[in-house]
Design brief:
This protein is mostly helical. It has twelve helices and no strands.
Length: about 290
């Protein structure tokens, strides 16, 4: 409980600031409506009017929570979880591309880290380009990946989204694994040499186990990056499915509640994915005797 208190305190402050912001930003419209109707609002009536607008500039937290429930839990209870109006359906579309891109990005990151660890040439050639790749704005790169994918005959939106997702998530995995694979000390490596251990044995019995804490930490960053990449990939593709598409459609039709509900659905999905990786990390490290 003592660990939850600071989190709850920050959440309470953020919620209060959010309500204050909603009141401040929605007040002009409420006053304009009252003036048009020839009414004079009290402070309480003005506050209520700012908290229940259909298309507010900034929705209040309870409005976002209500919209999120209507498009997830309520639809699931009514057996419409897979309806195209359900955020569960759109979240599943985004999740599929995220996991595909995440798997691809993790594989590329591990291969790059192994190459950099064992090859000086790879270290001098790959790492600078990897760093440069992360300086390119993904918002500008995503449409190019979609166009190139279509040009080579790749149908559908799944592959381009997975490529964009992998592009964002391979880097933290590679950097974390390079750090982890090089974490054994010279004494430990020399000890294995005295046992006449081969390079493969040194890798699987020393470097790889030592890299696990770094690997899982980098995967937590990577899965969040993969989700962001997928959502960005859904924005310029003209897709009609996925959380990114819901955000774009909400923006086009001027429905801020739909935008905020999709944003929170994405945040919840990211939290669940990071928690799952954290759970796997705890189990694996405990079985390896590396749990703190």
């Amino acid at each position: 409980m003592h660990r939850a208190l600071p989190v709850l305190a920050v959440l309470a402050v953020l919620t209060a600031v959010w309500y204050l912001g909603a009141w401040r930003m929605n007040t002009p419209w409420a006053l304009a409506q009252a003036e048009r109707a020839g009414q004079e609002l009290s402070a309480g009536e003005l506050f209520t009017a700012t908290m229940n607008q259909d298309r507010p500039r900034l929705p209040a937290p309870h409005q976002v929570a209500t919209e999120l429930w209507k498009t997830t839990g309520d639809m699931a209870l009514r057996g419409k979880a897979l309806s195209k109006r359900s955020l569960i359906y759109h979240g599943a579309i985004t999740l599929g591309s995220t996991l595909t891109g995440f798997a691809l990005g993790v594989a590329l990151g591990i291969l790059g880290a192994v190459a950099i660890t064992y090859s000086r040439v790879a270290e001098m050639s790959l790492m600078p380009w990897a760093i440069v790749s992360q300086t390119i704005p993904i918002v500008a790169l995503a449409p190019m990946i979609v166009v190139l994918s279509n040009a080579v005959g790749i149908e559908g939106r799944g592959v381009p989204k997975a490529i964009i997702s992998a592009y964002l998530c391979y880097f933290p995995v590679m950097v974390g694994m390079v750090k982890g694979l090089n974490s054994p000390s010279h004494q430990q490596l020399d000890l294995l040499k005295t046992y006449n251990a081969s390079g493969a044995e040194s890798f699987f019995k020393l470097r790889l186990p030592a890299s696990m804490p770094y690997f899982f930490t980098s995967m937590k960053v990577a899965i969040a990056a993969a989700l962001v990449g997928t959502i960005i990939g859904e924005l310029p593709t003209g897709a009609i499915s996925g959380l990114g598409a819901r955000i774009l459609i909400g923006d086009q039709f001027g429905t801020p509640l739909a935008i905020w509900a999709a944003l929170f659905a994405a945040a919840i999905l990211a939290g669940v994915l990071v928690t799952v990786i954290g759970g796997v990390q705890a189990v694996v490290l405990k079985r390896m005797g590396m749990a703190r």
